[in-house]
Amino acid sequence: MPFSPLRGFRDYVPPDAAARAELWRRIRRVAHRCGFQELETPSVEALELFRVKSGGDIETQVWSFDDKGGRDVALIPETTPGLTRVYVERAKAEPLPVKWVTLSKLWRYEEPQQGRTREFSQVNFDILGVPGVEAEVDILATTAMALDEVGAEGLYAFRVNDRRFAEGLGHAVGASDPLLFFRALDRKAKGTEREFESNLRRAGLSADSIEHLVRLLAEAGSGLPCAEVEAFLDRRAAEGLPAPGPEGIDRLRAFFRRAEALGLGDRTVFDPTVVRGLAYYTSTVFEAYARQGDLRALFGGGRYDHLVELFGGPPTPACGLALGDQTLEVLLRQAGRWPAGEPPIDTYVVAATPEFGLEAARWVQRLRRAGVAADSDLLGRSMSRQLREAARRRARRALIVGPQEAAKGVLLERDLSSGVQRELAPDEVLPPE
């Protein structure tokens, strides 16, 4: 009977598997360039670890089971709890700030759709020990560099807000249920104006308050560029935004000034509807979104200053961002920027006759040991078919060994782009040391 992957799971075959590896290689290289150290945590953790962070509802989203020791465990649905556990274990000895990058495979029992599978990979950038906006800006600057490195330059931008500003805004318009108010803001871009107003009424807003809030949000449009954020925040401050709104205003001012100074002004906007769904975010929150199409959110993150304490550690400011492979792949494919996959080999060694197959293999080994990507035929194919295989593998050149070449003590090099051939002495085949 034939088998296929389970629903929500994917095979990655050549060349896509190599394309994905290339993306992670580029992201890892940027992370190291930006001062992030790599952390790796287990793929299976105690289920309680995720209950502490997200409550009992998390159990509907995770692949959980009893292990052979009778313990409640789960395939990890996210990296932050494991990262926090590691930090708490090392807090007394870990010098601050901590800058960690993780590249993990994760599992969530969610309804599969475009850009969302039940098994996926994710890169996290986290900074612990920095209370100021320096951390958030550094994370977004690193993420921007990583996205540009993988080919997404010009395809994305960041939306930024502060949860305390949103909370103050809710108090100002008379929201009786802050969580419902946050939920209404978060869903504004996903529904109609009528649905938005209905959600605001459920949060306790009167008709006049809804009208006032809609006018205020219209000032921000689909996102205010850095140069216009100060004036918008000044108007809110002048209106006397209730606490903790003023703290959010101060932090947003500091964030956007620094972001613009560090070259993020062309891809960062202020959006007062961004609040993020997770309750543990404490101030700055941000999302990346696609500039084209439906302006959908690609990934997000924010500041989570109380999570380390929740896990039994010392008070530690922290912020982080998670970038998933599925939305990144959709973004790059739709823009025609998905990597080519397997890199071309440099040299394909061709045996002119079957008797020279072993000699071809010997040259392959010499080339590989000298640092050259090389291969040869393993199926005893004809010379013409070997040359076709060399072209399919996008080799730069073919090296032909056979009776005529052996009689002269040379190898025949054929440039596979131009077709130009020349004879090489054996000591000319390998690159200089």
Quaternary form: single chain
N- and C-termini, Cα separation? 54 Å
Indicate the overall shape. Answer: elongated
For this structure, what is the CATH class of the largest domain?
Alpha Beta
Order of the strands making up the biggest sheet: 1-5-6-12-11-10-7-9-8
CATH fold name of the largest domain:
BirA Bifunctional Protein, domain 2
- Main sheet specs: 9 strands, mixed
Q: What is the H level of CATH, i.e. the homologous superfamily of the largest domain?
A: Bira Bifunctional Protein, Domain 2
Domain unit count: 2
Number of strands: 17
- Secondary structure category: alpha+beta
Average pLDDT works out at: 94
List the helices and strands and how they pair.
Elements: H1 16-33, E1 37-38, E2 44-46, H2 47-54, E3 63-66, E4 72-75, H3 80-90, E5 98-107, E6 119-128, H4 134-149, E7 156-162, H5 163-172, H6 178-186, H7 193-202, H8 207-220, E8 224-225, H9 226-238, H10 245-261, E9 268-270, E10 284-290, E11 297-303, H11 307-310, E12 318-324, H12 325-334, E13 347-351, H13 357-369, E14 374-376, H14 383-392, E15 397-401, H15 403-408, E16 411-415, E17 421-424, H16 426-429
Parallel strand pairs: 1-5, 7-9, 13-14, 13-15
Antiparallel strand pairs: 2-4, 3-4, 5-6, 6-12, 7-10, 8-9, 10-11, 11-12, 15-16, 16-17
Helix pairs in contact: 1-4, 5-10, 6-7, 9-10
